[in-house]
Amino acid sequence: MMLLETWVATSVGLIVFTTYLTHNRTGLPRVGKGGPIGFILTALKSITSFEDLLEEGLGKYGDKAFVVPTMAGSLVIIGIDNVEKVKNSDDSIINQPLSVVESLQLTHTMNSRQQALPYQAVVTRTDLTRAIGSFIPEVLDETRLSMSEAFAPKAGEKSATVPLFHTMTHLIARISNRAMLGTTLCRNETFLHDVIRFAETVVLYAQLLAWFPKMLRSPIYFLASSKYGGPREPTKVLIPHLKGLIAEKGQGLESSKTIADFLLNHAPPEEIANPELFAMRVLNLNFGSIHTSSIFGSHALFHLASLSEGELDGIRHEIVEALDSEGGYNKASLSKMRKLDSTLREVGRFYGLGPIGLNRVLVKPAVLEDGTIVPPGYNIAIPLKGLHFDPSVYPEPEKFDCFRFSKLRETEESDVKHGFTTIERNFVPFGLGRHACPGRFFASMELKIMLAHMLLNYDISLPDGAKEAPKGNEVQRGRDAGC
Ligand code: HEM
């Protein structure tokens, strides 16, 4: 009991101390209550009401920089006129990798190698993107199988009601891991459960760890994640699998081509010699792909389920035509599914992954467009509303329109301009610049196959009484949809 009390007291002391150290010294105005205690209270409030704090700042300070206290310390929100500056940055002043290190506490939740030698990003950008076409049959096969299991009605019933976000996360984890690791592990329910839990808890643990001195973060993560989340459980089956891959490669055997094989081709000798290190690359990519795609897929499906039968038939018709004219699922037919593509792009515009984006860390003082100087060491981000809801770019921005971009593509010559994976100043859910998401082409292929298969083989509807898609992050909080 004494031990527990000492631990709690030390933790509270450390938290207060760390908070005092991290309180706003930028000289910029900040939202929330004043003083160090106010900082703590506002940071706690940011866990559940970040959007309200952001709105408060935007209402008070407009495009001027201001600070929002968060669990990871002071976050400086900068105006949208700085987008080009952030996009063109080469990490020497406005740095992207460090913001990932900080927001995920990467050194402690994974390891420092992920940032020092980020070959998982290189593999995604090169080998994986080039091989997208060859993954299509496998993604389709796993989609068919996993959906027939997930959406099977109970005996004697004609339909099944499923919690959408939870189901989508499971489907994405399984289908993505078919490409990542092959048929055995992607159907191993224990592995899927553990890898999803790892991905879900990294962000939560990272927020907690940021409040502790650096030297305590790794032991705290080790202790806490040994009980819940963490890499230990998923690596129990992952490491033996990777050892098998490494052994096959050592014998010159040509194994089936999975993303893990691509990673292996780029892995340095010390990671090949230590599969525990190598396994973290697979976990890192799982982290990057599971929740991002599940959030997009869930929003898309909620909105598709809100359409009229006539509109849904229009989408189905376009999918069937694309499949007939191109001989089934392939890159050409997927690119002809413009209405699905448009729905996904509208999800990116309307929701993205949250209300802010282009998160970076300043490694030197940065001069903003209006002359404001932000000191080094601070996290910065851009509020997406000003970009994604600009009425001069997106007429009626508050309306979610599945066909917003497919209608534009009918009238314009350029085929890629309004496509889901095309990033630009006013469309940044995948980031911008040299670190823009390299996995977006895989995500687009996977989500389109899943949605197309679902629309052609199932009738979908919202649960009884619901007329419209849930708002914002209600989706992640787990509202149900009938299917
Ligand atoms: C709808 C799905 C996805 C969304 C919305 C998304 C979003 C993002 C964002 C916002 C970034 C940071 C960009 C920046 O700061 O400029 C990023 C980076 C990254 N994403 Fe994605 N992502 C998705 C799917 C995926 C998938 C499926 C993979 C892998 C298969 C992946 C792999 C990566 C990697 C490796 C990076 C780091 C790139 C670098 O540091 O150079 N993502 N993603």
Automatic annotation (TrEMBL):
Name any cofactors this protein relies on. Answer: heme
Where do the annotations place heme binding? C437
Pfam families referenced in this protein's UniProt entry, alphabetically: p450
A Gene Ontology MF term for this entry?
iron ion binding
Q: Which Gene3D superfamilies match?
A: Cytochrome P450
**Taxonomic superkingdom:** Eukaryota
Annotated keywords: Heme, Iron, Metal-binding, Monooxygenase, Oxidoreductase
Is the Heme keyword given for this protein?
A: yes
Report the PANTHER family cross-referenced here: CYTOCHROME P450, P450, PUTATIVE (EUROFUNG)-RELATED
UniProt family annotation: Belongs to the cytochrome P450 family.
Q: Please state what the protein is called.
A: Ent-kaurene oxidase
Q: Lineage in the entry?
A: Eukaryota, Fungi, Dikarya, Basidiomycota, Agaricomycotina
